[in-house]
Amino acid sequence: MTTLPDSHKEVAALSTEELLMRVQILKNDLNAIILAHYYTLPEIQQAADIVGDSLALARAAEKNSADVIVFAGVYFMAETAKILNPGKLVLMPDPGAGCPLADSCPEDEFRAFRQEHPDAIAITYVNSTAAIKALTDIVCTSSNAEHIIRQIPPEQKIIFGPDRNLGSWLSKRTGRDLLLWQGFCYVHDAFSETFMIQAMAMYPGAELIAHPECRDEVLRHASYVGSTKGLLDYTVNSDAKSFIVATEPGILYEMEQRSPGKTFIPAPKDPANPRSVCRQMKQNTLEKMYLGMLNRSPEITIDENLREAALKPIMKMLEMSA
Ligand code: 13P
Ligand code: SF4
C-alpha cells in the first residue's frame, strides 16, 4: 500500500486538488468504491465514483466488486451499505453525521405504535435506524415509495414512518389512508408557503420543484415533486430555463454540472426558521475522507442479528422496485 503522510496538521494544510489526488491513490490501493449523496460538499461529489439518491446508492452498495465502500452521506446510508455487505469494510468520513429524521423515531415508541395497529403492515422510509428497519415489513425511499405502496392490496392497512410530510404526500398520490409517524426533516420542514409564493412572483419564469419531505403547503405549488435524483432528472429534461429548488442546496452543484445553461435558485429560507442546509451531510469533508481511507477507520459495524433482521425489508424494497 502507498505510504502517505498522515498527521492531522499536515492533512489540514493540503489543497483540495492534493487531497483529491491522494484519495484517488488510496481508492486504487484499497480497491474501494466511493459513494456520495447529492447533498455532500462539491469536492466530495468530485471524489465519488457514484453520486446518487438513497435508492441509487443502496443499489450501488448492493452491486459492486470493491473490497471497501467509502460512504459520504449520513449514518443510515452507510449502515444500509453495511447491512447489504457484511463482509466488506464500510468506512464513513464522519460516523457522527446522523440523520435527525431517522433519530426522531425511537425503537420502543415505534414498536408500541405497531402494537396499537396489529393489522397494519409497516412501510418505512430508508431514513431510519437499523432497529426501526428490523421492525418493518418493507423499506422504501422517496423514489420508490409510491410504486411500492401501489403494490399493496387496497384493503391492507399501512403504517408509514418516520417522515410525516412524505407520508402525507404519498397518501394524496395513492389515495391510501396511511397511519403516519409524526417525524420530519428539519431542513425540508423549514420551507414555508409564504416565501415560496414570494419567490415565484420574483422569478415568474422559474419552475418550483420540491422534495416530498417538504410540507404540503409547499408541495402544492410545485411543478414537480420527487427524490433528489427525480429533481435532477426533471431539471435536465424540462424546457424551463430556471428553477426554484426546494430541497437541500447541495444538489445545485450537480444540477449546474448537468445543465450549465440553466439557472438554479435555492428555495428561500423562512427568516423565522432559516435551517435549509443539512449540517450532517456537510460533516463529510475531504480531509476526513482521506484520513479515514488512510487509517481504514472509522468503520461501520452492526450486530449480526440486527443486520439480518434489517436486511429483510431492505431486500423486499429492492425486489419490489426492481
Ligand atoms: P433522496 O433519497 O431523495 O436522495 O433523499 C434523501 C434524503 O435524506 C432527503 O433529505
Ligand atoms: Fe436527514 Fe433531512 Fe439531512 Fe436528509 S436532509 S439527511 S432527511 S436531516
How is this structure best described in words?
The chain is α/β, with parallel strands linked by helices and 322 residues long. It folds into three domains: 8-97 and 281-301, NadA-like (Rossmann fold); 101-184 and 310-320, NadA-like (Rossmann fold, 3-Layer(aba) Sandwich); 191-266, NadA-like (Rossmann fold, 3-Layer(aba) Sandwich), CATH 3.40.50.10800. It is 43% helix and 15% strand. The chain is built from 16 helices and twelve strands. It has helices spanning 8-12, 16-30, 42-47, 54-62, 75-84, 100-103, 107-116, 130-134, 145-149, 164-174, 193-202, 216-219, 228-237, 251-258, 286-295, 304-320, and strands at 32-37, 50-52, 68-72, 89-91, 120-125, 138-140, 157-161, 179-180, 207-210, 224-225, 242-246, 263-266. Strands 2-1-3-4 form a four-stranded parallel β-sheet, with helices on both faces. Strands 6-5-7-8 form a four-stranded parallel β-sheet. It has a four-stranded parallel β-sheet with strand order 10-9-11-12, with helices on both faces. Strand 1, helix 3 (42-47) and strand 2 form a beta-alpha-beta unit. The two termini are 38 Å apart. The mean pLDDT is 96. Iron/sulfur cluster binds next to helix 6. 1,3-dihydroxyacetonephosphate binds at residues 53-54, 127, 141-142, 185, 211, 213, 227-228.
Structural class: alpha/beta
CATH topology of the largest domain: Rossmann fold
* Largest β sheet strand count, sense and barrel closure: 4 strands, parallel
User: What fraction strand?
Assistant: 5-15%
How many structurally independent domains? Answer: 3
Number of helices: 16
Q: How far from one another are the termini?
A: 38 Å
Rg measurement, Å: 20 Å
- The ordered string of helix (H) and strand (E) elements is HHEHEHEHEHHEHEHEHEHEHEHEHEHH
Overall geometry comes to globular
Assembly context of the chains: single chain
Helix fraction bin = 40-55%
Bound molecules: 1,3-dihydroxyacetonephosphate, iron/sulfur cluster
Number of strands: 12
CATH superfamily of the largest domain: NadA-like
pLDDT averaged residue by residue: 96
